[in-house]
Design goal:
Shape of chain A: globular
Organism (chains A, B): Kribbella deserti
Strand order of the largest sheet of chain A: 1-2-3-5-4-6-7-8-9
CATH superfamily of chain A: Alpha/Beta hydrolase fold, catalytic domain
Oligomer: homodimer
CATH topology of chain A: Rossmann fold
Radius of gyration of chain A: 17 Å
Keywords (chains A, B): Hydrolase
Family (chains A, B): Belongs to the AB hydrolase superfamily.
EC number (chains A, B): 3.1.-.-
Protein name (chains A, B): Dienelactone hydrolase family protein
Number of helices of chain A: 7
Amino acid sequence: MRFTSEAWYDGVREQLFSLGEIPGALWTPAGAVRTRPVIFIGHGGGEHKLGPGVVDRARRFVAEGGFAVVAVDVLGHGDRPRDEDFDRLATEEQARVETGQESAQLFADFRTLVARRTVVEWQAVLDAVQQLEHVGAGPVGYWGLSLGCGLGVPFVAADPRVRATVLGLCGDLASPEDAARITVPVEFLVQWNDERVPRDQGLALFDALGSAEKALHANPGKHGEVPAYELDSALRFFSRHLN
Amino acid sequence: MRFTSEAWYDGVREQLFSLGEIPGALWTPAGAVRTRPVIFIGHGGGEHKLGPGVVDRARRFVAEGGFAVVAVDVLGHGDRPRDEDFDRLATEEQARVETGQESAQLFADFRTLVARRTVVEWQAVLDAVQQLEHVGAGPVGYWGLSLGCGLGVPFVAADPRVRATVLGLCGDLASPEDAARITVPVEFLVQWNDERVPRDQGLALFDALGSAEKALHANPGKHGEVPAYELDSALRFFSRHLN
């Protein structure tokens, strides 16, 4: 793990790093020394580790919840080196979207390609950040919508360090068995007028989650219009389950 | 409006009253003098104004939110005088439940009988409590699940003083036009394994609400198993919209 830059904003320390070919960002409270819970943020499709939504969430989780937060670029996104398999699939899928085929299928195919690699990568990132003195090996939360949900479902199912997760804007049931293997508390977001994920698919994924404690939060609006109060809710949810 | 008893518990003043034939309860912060928002609680079927759930919610709304809270016995419930129409319908409906017919239909029929009267009664109760010096004419919130939702939908649709409402556990669409007339913020609860209200009916009622801001909160469990954290959420929701 190699740190490449460091900055402070309003009491939040931001460190950029790379782990092998994976570029990432870590946010912690300035001056942090003791072990604290980590929230892993999975960014959306076409976004990256420093997208404005990711950074906004990360700073609030750190400043208001005292968490450490980590995000990395998913294969084919942000500062990742180009990947031939990814480029080929992305080109094929863009062609499908242009011919009007369902974008939910795009997520399913994309996930098939990257999910296995992503789980391995994210587990390695967690291993590395939890060895840092200002993070430590505390409980882990996962936050991911849209692509971050599609990749998050197999990750949360696979990693027992994750104790609570916010997922949503995702209806891909290519791996309903992964959803069924999730048993930690979940807050699951659905946009009632989502133009990309059919409502029934989102509800079906919520239904498939194996967790005894799972809360569906549905709000009116399109895919990109999750109301701001859901971030307040996520912060309380993680505080309740990770502290 | 005639007050019949008064008590204090942990900083909360509880006054029982009757308005004509309607028995009610009013909770306010001890020592309250200024105008404050009122939350009207509609109790569930078979319950009454002093049911443990009603009292628990009322005390928290007062103690933690500074609200005034009022609840009254619905026709045929609690300390209400017997009513021939109600008794006849209740007997008929009990027979239907015993023969295995859908209980959602029970709520629909019940509502047809009492909704019109209830709206008039509740508006009169609001008129009366808002004339009290320790309540005043502030904004109003409405909280009602199950029967309290079935009666609350026409009430919230009819009374412009109501600025925010928590509804749910209810799928009766006998009056979808009432739901469509609701335009204030709504938090709407669905129990994912509700044995009394079919899931699709709850989702359809949420869909029919005319509000631009409406949030569906669905949790696993049966009709009576709404998780405790939804009361925390309701308290924050009312604080956000009524203060």
